[in-house]
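Hi there. Long-time user, first ticket. I'm pasting a complex I've been working with (about 591 residues overall). I'd like to know whether the download I got is complete or cut off, because the file seemed smaller than I expected. Thanks.
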Amino acid sequence: MIEQTPRERPINLLIKASGYSSILFVLLILFFLLREGLPAITSAELSSLFGTIWYPIEDYFGIWPLIFGSIIVTITAILIAIPLGIGTSLYISEVAPLWAKNLLKPLIEILAGLPSVVLGFIGIQVAAPLLREGLNLPTGLSGLTGAILLAFIATPTVVSISEDALNTVPASYRQAALALGATKWQTLWNITLPAAKSGVLTAVMLGVGRAIGETMAVMMVTGNAPVMPHGLDAIILPIRTMTATIASEMGEVATGSPHYQVLFFIGIILFLLSLTINVIASWVSTRGLKRSERSLS
Amino acid sequence: MKWKILSFILCLSLLLTGCAADSDQPAAETSSVYIQNKGSDTIVNLALAWAERYQTIRPDVRLSVTGGGSGTGITSLINGTVDIANASRAIKSEEIKAAEANGIEPVEHVIARDAIAVIVNPQNPVDQLTLEQISRIYRGEITNWKEVGGEDRPIVRLSRETNSGTHVYFLEAVVRLGNSNDKTIFSPLTLLLPSSEGIIAEVSSNPNAIGYDGLGYVTHEVKMIAVSPGKGQPYVLPSIDSVNDKSYPIARDLYMYSRKDSSQAVLDYLQWVLSDEAQQIVADLGFVPVLPAP
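Hi, the file is complete. Here it is re-exported in full:
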């Protein structure tokens, strides 16, 4: 233990307090969610809660279409965001000349700061009609449009975190590979990327977390129809996500009613999903990181 | 230096506001009456426009208008926190009972009418449907435009979100054709859009779409459908005249509820609301006046 001078003590306490307060807030949120949401299991009949029809004004509280809606949109979004995000971060950190690097990094940060409602507006006006005509869909307000927008929202997260991971790979790794006669591509693909694997996986998981929690953009472009998916074509059909459901229905619901409790129950599911994702992300980032790597980076 | 100027301006503005409040005092003291007005989001724009105009006629009356939904407005009236409740549906019998238990007797005023227009893309050749056809489209029984005389295209159904009074009205009056024992709901494929503008945007760009919206929201980018109440009866386009002569079937009354022992100011206001001047504002906002517009 390092000796504290009397002047350091209050500062130390302050820092400690702010550190613990974030844990406290998460616990309080969890407590509140559970208190408001868990009664849903008894007040709405279970058969109704895990049914396939969501129509709350007639007491149909089937949450499966909403869960599947969120999962389908998120998986599709992340399938688009992974190659895009990792490719971009590889280019910025390994390939791009300095001027391109200096131009791209702030641009991606701007993309990260773009309000999702603006993206949603672009989605309604541009992406939805384009997709409808291009793929000959009945309507452009579909899961696919939502997934593309979500990919745009998740990509900056993936790029900036995996780029950080690539930057921490020691230069000696690359130098050694190049010295052994590997081409630039071989170095990048076989040495640098595997060395940064855990960081890149963390980036992907956080991208998933970003996508599953996004509300406004998906609410504007997915059509919000609580359709039960029956196959792979579900992605080109309208979809209703959990977040959009909470956002659009919370405003008018009577406090304490079964509908209110079910909405909080959906909140619990979302909380658990993003908790799982974060746990996996932190597990991935610490696992496989050997002592030597840690001391080098 | 900068701070000195800033604080000087601050002091000055404080002083001046003091003056303004002082000079206002005598006028307000004569008879300043507050009317609290709350309820339906459909009516809130109309109520605001009325309140603004009424302020110029009766500067001694102050109106405060808020939205929140028909149910919220009526509940506030029952609890005695507002003078007038706006509602896009009639008061329910259990709400009347709750009010009477609180010693409040609600009085109903029909203050305007609202037609729900069924809209399609201008490219769509279909321009008339029966009420039953619209109901079957939204139930999911008719899925292609060729079944109602259009092109071979899938039908994309658009609706407002379930928290909208318009959604509930459309469900009861059109999807269930006014049959209260009918428990049919919208087809799960119905797209629920969060705003009227969203419906107009999608209908105006998508030739497969059908939607509905209050007459006041309909723009020239979409085509209104003429609706017939039943087979063999004439197809009617929504308009002020067709709503008032009851030939257009998808129209509803908009209400204000007050309490029986209201103050004179509230009574005066409710009387003014039915005047030609106030009803002209109704027509300007795209609703249907209770009396034919002059």
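A couple of notes from our side: The first helix of chain B runs from residue 2 to 30. Residues 14-30 of chain B have pLDDT under 50 and may be disordered.
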